[in-house]
Amino acid sequence: MSSDISVENTKMDYNKDRPKAKNPVKVMDLTLRDGHQSLFATRGRTEDMIPVAELMDEVGFWALETWGGATFDAMHRFLNEDPWERIRTLKKYAPKTPFSMLLRAQNLVGYRNYADDVAEAFVERAAANGMDVFRTFDALNDYRNFETVVKGIKKAGKHFQGCICYSMTEPRMGGDVYNLDYYVSKAKKLEAMGADSICVKDMAGLMAPYDAFPLFKALKQAVKPPLHLHSHFTSGMAPMTHLKAIEAGVDIVDTCMSPYAYRTSHPAVEPMVMALLGTNRDTGFDINLLAKINEIFEKEIVPKYRHLLADNKMSIIDINVLLHQTPGGMLSNLVNQLREMDALDKIDKVYAELPRVRKDLGQIPLVTPTSQIVGTQTVNNVLFDEGDERYKMITGQVKDLCYGLYGKTAVPINPEVQQKALKGYPRGEEPITCRPAEVLEPELDKAKEEIKDLAKDIDDVLIYALYPVTGKKFLKWKYGLEPVPPEAKPRTMDDVKAEQELLAMAKAGKLVAKKEKPVPVMGENLRKFNVLVDGEYFEVEVEDTGGPPNISYARETAPRQSASPRQARVSPPVPSPAKPAETSAVKEPAKAAVDVSGGTPLIAPMPGMIVGIDKKEGDTVNEGETVLILEAMKMENALPAPISGTITKINLGVGDHVAKNDILCVISP
Ligand code: CO
């Protein structure tokens, strides 16, 4: 196969006499969505996009990605910004370039499938507010989850971009599932659905350059719509992969302005513009204009966000992604999860179990939310399986997946695992084979009724329908019914300046340390804590001088004598969500032993929050029957009764946070 790229012109000044390329590579800019989502946890504010928006509108981008993905969630939850308002505001500053959004198909911009009426209203409103390109994906590549939103996109006369989530089971493209035929057949399905363009979405940066080349060559031959590549830099391969995809004839690629590029973000636009200069695929972009935009970013915007950079490692690539072919974000979640459970030593077992769990669950792609579903189940298996019994603790989301609520998996789910997962499943033990949203009741009228006192229009209703708890809170901030917390307010350049001045003084030795006070004699309330700050170890001693400990919540932990060595660990204090101000983080929880008296305690196997209690005191239960639902790492775990008997005590309520090894209830035979 030959490459379709050639240098046409070497003698030119790129400011003038630059011939237009025969087939310029089109570029979508991701700076204002995936860029800050990848680097700064989606905390970019609209006011920090305005200073560059007009200039970015002049570059000639195919589209500006400005919305979707996590923006809707982060804006209303953390930034006190109306997500709809961002589209309308940016549109005023950048009216020429189409706006693109990332749409999670029937999940819209949330984490579960919404009913059809919500999906229809959401797409209609996104289009009406100014969205032009709807980049649509489904975590399972099950295009039945596209049906409702695509109808809406077409009805609004907007651009439907269909995505194929790029996934693999081996270190290179191929194998039984995610091979060339898989991608070609998915692309043909999207073409048949009326896709205006087709995107291969390599969300984890797994695509190797020499897989990109045959992939895009084959897709180019198989389908007519323009082809688009979305890749992340995470593993370090993306710029090479882009170039090979361009050689193979890809039409559009995704980049960021350089201050928002690389690390877990995307390749930068500037090196690509120069790499293609004078070729038949020259972008035609003015490098001086790009430099001007970068200067604004560096001077006026980036300083406000630097502190949010996820790590300060020297390396800007994540080599683990190359080793395990698994998204970087998923790997760091696994490590955090194991750390919370004091089981970091089991990481190698987790790496070994991960491909087995994924295979059992139908070799699904690993992208939000399937990466969390597979990851958490893997950790559960490694920590809780005993002897020959596998899948001892199955999360609610794995049960939903086995039921068919997310859609059809790439290969069938292991029937043994499926049967076990669906035993006693409330929707039924027989999995569905229909389009998942068909089993969902309409939700919009109910949401309208529930929020009618707060919502002023349909856009408000949708914020609530998608995010009932945080959405309602946001609407109260929006209409001045509740004060906006300080952490939701923007950071200004003055804040940054003040910090930098302080830092400069400290470096110059001009900060004078406060005169030390004499150390008072410590009383019996003295507690010793080991504290790690950025990897540095401190021993901190804290004394409560206000008399007896003021504990605003009652929670008991396992008695030392009756528990195994692991269970004997005193639980760390967990602040009560209801009264955070009263619960000092340095106080230990009440350690009064629960009166187990002949009963058997149900112990929290991991830290988390109680989200459901199926039984009450006095109820009889059979061994293995669900008593409580514990949410950990966004996944729900049904905790079964350890013995048959009567529940003599339940120690917690819904919404309570628990530490590992807390006694949740006692069952007497
Ligand atoms: Co992305």
CATH superfamily of the domain at 26-308: Aldolase class I
Report low-confidence residues grouped into runs of 5 or more. Answer: 547-592
The CATH topology of the domain at 26-308 turns out to be TIM Barrel
Strand order of the largest sheet: 1-2-3-4-5-6-7-8
Shape: globular
Helical stretch count?
21
Summarize model confidence as the mean pLDDT.
Answer: 87
Overall number of strands: 18
> Which CATH-level-2 architecture of the domain at 26-308?
Alpha-Beta Barrel
Mind telling me the CATH class of the domain at 26-308? Alpha Beta
What portion of residues belong to β-strands?
5-15%
Bound molecules: cobalt (II) ion
Compute the separation of the termini in Å. Answer: 73 Å
Rounded to the nearest angstrom, the radius of gyration is: 27 Å
